Amino acid sequence: MTAHDLPQGMIRAPHTSGTHEGYMPGWANDFETEALPGALPQGMNSPQKCNYGLYGEQLSGTAFTANPPERTWTYRIRPSVKHSARYERIELPYWKSAPHTPANVTSLGQYRWSPIEAEDDFDWLTGMRTMTTAGDVNTQVGMASHIYLVTKSMVDAYFYSADSELLVVPQQGKLRFATELGVIDVEPQEIAIIPRGLVYRVEVLEGPCRGFVCENYGQKFELPARGPIGANALANPRDFKAPVAAFEDREVPSTLTIKWCGQFHETKIAQSPLDVVAWHGNYAPYKYDLKTYCPVGAILFDHPDPSIFTVLTAPSGHPGTANIDFVLFRDRWMVAEDTFRPPWYHKNIMSELMGNIYGQYDAKPQGFVPGGMSLHNMMLPHGPDREAFEGASNSNLGPHKLENTMSFMFETRFPQHLTEFAGKEAPLQDDYIDCWDSLEKKFDGTPGLK
Predict the structure, then answer these.
(1) What is the distance between the alpha carbons of residues 259 and 15, in angstroms, rounded to a whole number?
(2) Is residue 288 part of a domain?
């Protein structure tokens, strides 16, 4: 299957002006798309009879009175109640939700993990490995971070989360998200955002697949306020791509799994639920090419706060303090004069979970490898290791371009608690804390000495 082939029997909206190979550009746009001509009502949302014998149905991502409301009207072969029957609890033992604080794991510490390898045949659900949880899924605050290990496609099996929006960061392999609203293909250096409540199936286009997931329990991700940066740079709205309508009309026994309040439930249905022929609205999945992110930074002196590299933010009830920030560290020029250019030593009210997509991170030249991740929990000090400190303190401060590097951070206002998998099974680098042991005392009391 090539990147542009669709599953047999799936019909997608034709390429039209304003679309890009099956995608529509723009963040938070009010999109409209139809896979069959005339399937989308015009001038109203709920006609007495829809064309093609379709059912009109609304998917709401916010309360009706939210401003602005986020909702999408769908026109589908069957209403969703036909894709929902009696539910049975099932166990996915490696996918955890907050609050989750196992007694035999210590979350307080600076941690780093080597890449996790798939040692079995996993699909999207069985291959999810929760590393940390924060907040409370029942009160819809906080997040969880996961590693996914996917070697096989979901076959006649579908999933949605009633708990959370998912931010997917591929590191290896290529995945397809066949959703109710269309098809999204993602690969390393791209991300996908899957809204709460949206049904989808995950297929392997090129495996094995590994990557990172931020499960957002709280308010949806949005573009950060730019403040004095102004209207340009960072992540531009036009570079986010929503899928055009695509649907399946398949009568085949299938399973639908739902994540609800941290529990997993399965129901048996007689057909594919991906049967939306047309839709319009502003509640949709997206993909985004991280290579289009335009970083800004210091051009004279000092290293700016990492918040300057925010791609998306999920706000909390405290202005300026995010439920989650998704921060990207990519190729960029370093030009600051008389400045220690890597991130400085600090401790922070926010908890920082980092992942390496490819290349070398400038503050940790050893040990933080592609596919690996690290955790610096709230109010725990961290910063460059000795090699990075000495190199940055003594380097020639000419213009220098950081190249072949892409790392990211899931940052949250809540402490992140390790799961048993993270603390006991995942390849924890026990010697990570030792990376600061060789830092030397340089103070000698001499005035003006640098």
Answers:
(1) 34
(2) no
Q: Which amino acid is at 217?
A: Y
Does 167 map to a domain? no
| Structural domain containing residue 403 | 293-433
CATH number at residue 375: 2.60.120.10
Residue 408 within any structural domain of the chain: yes
Among residues 269, 252, 245, 243, the alpha carbon closest in space to that of 52 is found at 245
Specify burial of residue 361 (Cβ count, 10 A radius: 0-12, 13-18, 19+): buried
Q: Which helix (H) or strand (E) holds 376?
A: strand 373-376
pLDDT less than 50: residues of the chain: 1-3
Instruction: List Cα–Cα distances, 437 to 106, 284, 427, 431, in angstroms.
Output: 21, 48, 22, 10
Look at residue 156 and tell me if it is in a domain. no
- Judge whether 303 counts as a catalytic residue: yes
Q: Annotated catalytic residue: which of 303, 346, 376, 417? A: 303
Residue-level pLDDT at 1? 37
Sheet strand arrangement including 373-376: 110-113, 373-376, 351-359, 400-412, 324-334, 310-314
DSSP 319: T
CA-based end-to-end distance of the chain? 60
Query: What is the pTM assigned to this prediction?
Result: 0.95
Output the CA angle 219-244-211, nearest 5 degrees.
Answer: 55
pLDDT tens figures, 276-314: 999 999 999 999 999 999 999 999 999 888 899 999 999
Number of structural domains (the chain) is 1
CB atoms within 10 A of CB 107: 20
Instruction: Provide the strand spans (E) within 180-244.
Output: 182-186, 190-194, 200-216, 240-243
For the stretch 57-101, pLDDT in tens is 999 998 899 888 999 999 999 999 999 999 999 999 999 999 999
Q: Strands 88-90 and 263-269: what pairing?
A: antiparallel
